[in-house]
Amino acid sequence: RLFRRWRTFIPSLPKMLLNKILKRWGLTLVVVFVTWTMLLYISSNYNINGTVHLSVKYNGAFEEDISAPDKTYVERQASVRDSATAASGSTVQKLNSAVDAEVKQMSKKPPKFNGPTFLIIMCRGRRSGREGTMRQIMQAGVMFKSALVFSTKRIRFFISTDSREIRTELEKVVKTWPYSYRSKLVLKFVSVWKPTVVSRMWTLGVECVMQRLFVPNMVPHEDAVIYADTDMLFMRNPEDLWDEFSNFNSTQVAAMGPCLYYYGTAKNSKTPFYGTSGVNAGLILMNLTRMKTSFPEGGFLEANMKAFEKYSEDIALADQDIINIVFAQYPEMMLELGCEWNYRPWQCKLGKNMCPKTSVEGVSLIHGNTKAFVNGKETKMQAMFDAWKAYELGSPLVDLYHNITSLLSKATVQGYKWECAKLENVDTILSQRMKSYLIDNNLLS
């Protein structure tokens, strides 16, 4: 009889104990669990200095092959790049040690990609709200669209980001496109690369703007990439821009478009600059191999750091000033692109076309910097962006052209003194390249 009672009692003992614990300590346990979860989340996304890391700890980069309709291809490449400070040695030596150690850990060099390779930077940083982040995502999606329309090859975009949200939202945009276009696009996400030992340099300008100086370290296996701001529209095959690398001589490591204003004229311009008007940092063709192996002063990053240390009090345009300082010292290492490859609002303001070549051939790439695509001031530039944004991939390209010409004709000056709308032939400048493309392909009579 005693045995039967114990056989009934023992299985119910854990349940009885659990009920007593929950009645007495249930609320406390819930509070402890919630607190622990929040601390774990915060610690996984911020370092001790409060710098935002990726929301999910990627073990480096992953690649989404958009040609695979139902799955994501993930390629492990490198650990998250947040270089640690060493106990001794110069700043440059510390960075070199961190980079060398990281590269040595990579057991296998990934296969070469046969097509144009771009890199864009999209950071959330410490922004409050989502307006800036969503604008970046919208602009990047429209830029991808414009590149895919003209390209005959697959195009790869490295995306340097500190935000899981940016990756997720970009995937949503791209996965709605027809397979024939998705099959030409490869997105590869990499972490931001930050030399923490030079925090003052890191904080210059808007979120992550200094990342442009770290591209050779960000994608160490690549031989060449084209850095591009997200606020750009291709009006010509991006393969033509990639072909500009073939124009490099044996010493040139980078190619950029001329600034055509500011340097040498603006009162804030106090630093040395390349050429007669400086270069704009919104688009940079980079021979990464030469930057890392044959650039003076120990490498491209090292030269940039020395320029910052020397002119830090006079720098007004963050990384663009630093790049101009470096190539003012080494002009033989820069190839100046045609101004049609980086056509910005300042090139058509004041009623004058600062890039005369575009009056005949049209622009190859439109750069809507200073929020020209969205701020309502540059009505002509915004008309171009709105037309591309509304265009559905797979629709007749001639429909896009007709929408462009229609929106350009409706764009009117709204009381702003320096708008491109005041330039007499601005509609032709902005749309001529597409018209020529359509005629060459028998899509427009």
Automatic annotation (TrEMBL):
Catalysis performed (reactions): 3-O-(beta-D-glucosyl)-L-seryl-[EGF-like domain protein] + UDP-alpha-D-xylose = 3-O-[alpha-D-xylosyl-(1->3)-beta-D-glucosyl]-L-seryl-[EGF-like domain protein] + UDP + H(+)
Predominant place of localization: membrane
Database matches in InterPro entries: Glyco_trans_8 (IPR002495), Glycosyltransferase_8 (IPR051993), Nucleotide-diphossugar_trans (IPR029044)
Membrane-related topology note: Single-pass type II membrane protein
Keyword Lipid metabolism attributed: no
Keywords: Glycoprotein, Glycosyltransferase, Membrane, Signal-anchor, Transferase, Transmembrane, Transmembrane helix
GO biological process, alphabetically ordered: protein O-linked glycosylation via N-acetyl-galactosamine
Cellular component per GO, a single term: membrane
GO MF terms, alphabetically ordered: UDP-D-xylose:beta-D-glucoside alpha-1,3-D-xylosyltransferase activity
Keyword Phosphoprotein recorded: no
EC number(s) reported in the record: 2.4.2.42
Transmembrane segments: 21-42
Localisation: Membrane
Enzyme class: transferase
Superkingdom field: Eukaryota
Similarity-based family: Belongs to the glycosyltransferase 8 family.
Entry function: Glycosyltransferase which elongates the O-linked glucose attached to EGF-like repeats in the extracellular domain of Notch proteins by catalyzing the addition of xylose.
PANTHER family: IP22168P
Protein name: UDP-D-xylose:beta-D-glucoside alpha-1,3-D-xylosyltransferase
Species for this entry: Hirondellea gigas
